[in-house]
Amino acid sequence: MADIKLPPKAVELLHKPFLAHVATVMRDGTPQVTPVWVDTDGEHILINTAEGRLKTRNLRRNPNVAVSIADPQNSLRGALQVRGKAIEITAEGANEHINKLSLKYNGRPYNYRSGEVRVIVKIRPERISGGITRE
To answer: For the domain that residue 43 is a member of, what is the CATH number?
Structure first.
């Protein structure tokens, strides 16, 4: 599959502290949606979650994923929808990443839960749409 590049405006949006919604596929084929903190490395969409959560289990079984995010000040023209694949789920660097996200969204370090193992999900875009792609 050809690489799909995130447009510069999409990267800019993903760096802002706006919640995204991530849709994964349940075992029975129905969708499951979760609001998440989101980030990007400029090429992929990155989310951080805990091992064992439903979205993590879904993505390990079926890597198809959709992500939606909108600028609350400009929800139509500032919207981004991405369909893609979770190409990596790793604990490497996940604790540092969740602290970075917590500072971005809450202004303070992350408050870990006992026994929690954090993972980064790396999502490769395969289709990008939304108002932000037309600017």
So the answer is: 2.30.110.10
